[in-house]
Amino acid sequence: MKNGHRLGRPFGWFWAAYGTSALGTWLAFGAFPLIAVQVLHAGPAEVAALSSVGAAVGAAVAVPLGPWVEFRRKRQVLIAMDLTRFAALLTVPAAYALGALTFLQLLLVSVVVAAADITFRAASGAYLKNLLPAEDLLVANARFESTAWTITIVGPPLGGAAVGLLGPVATVVADAVSHLLSALGIRATGGHESRPERRKAARMRAGDLLDGWRYILSDTALRPLFFNTALFNGLVMAAQPLLAVQMLGQLGFAPWQYGLAFAAPSIGGLLGSRLARPLVTRFGQHRILVAAGSLRAVWPIGLAFLGPGTGGLLLVIGVEFGLILCCGVFNPVHATYRLQRVATDRVTRTLTAWAVTTRATTALLTALWGVLGSLLGPRTAIGLAGVLLLATPLLLRRPSEKRPVPA
Question: 210-400 sits in which CATH class?
């Protein structure tokens, strides 16, 4: 690390843009379902469709954007995706003010935002890799992780207060403006970014859509990590709706207790992100990747033993704190290793394929666990997810030192 952790002014603007956009997203957390219920009087099926179908279709739309973005200047793509999200989100308060808001519009906006979000994240990885030398990537990713967990703590409560004071679309306006400010921040990074060289083929072929997946599956180090993260994220998220049903329904926890159970442990993410670099420096990247990735899998099984009262609340807080602490260490190390491993001309396609698979797996497992929860009961289904999570560390193994040769 050079200059005492200083990563330069361009990264400073990029980091500020990330934080601003993330704050807007968390301020508006749950805004669309809230608007659907309170304004459009939507039923449970429509609200579920808004969350699942919008994300799934958005992920499908993002698939062809990966190969297209690969050969574009990433800074321009990032600004375009921010402006796309700004424009799409702004149509919601505009239609609400005119009394013309419909469920179909909410669904279409959720699709556009989901596709733009995946594309933005994929392009941001490639941009970060070009912006900083390899030895600085872990510090940068740790700062992003720390910022994300900080905003996770403060964003939803502030968003809830804003909705209470200003109405259901207030946080959507804030989210839209945050993406506009993010675009301005990315523009302020300045500098010259050369246009990536295009392959000999003049037009994108249908087979190019699968390039990201082919690249991942052909790499002996990325392949197990890919399956590990998709399965881990999917199982953790699949149990969350069942945990909400159990806590708020069967066990009678108050909504504020439920919120506290997931907000307070986010402090573990801050701590973990601060520990990531010192741990890697002392023990090495691979050891920390395997250790943190394995330890994060042991915590969720504890939720199967959840009971009522203060003891149950403390159990959830403890389990979530341990889980988030390990994730706070694992996530920046994982993001850094992935960027270092992937060839520069494949980053966008690879990250797009990764994000699409993770979201699709999460949607599929969430639907499946909803059925299991109905058949077996929430506690049993949560316990089953915890048992399967214990097997995910088997997919974490020592990568080969040889990196794949770019095609």
Answer: mainly alpha
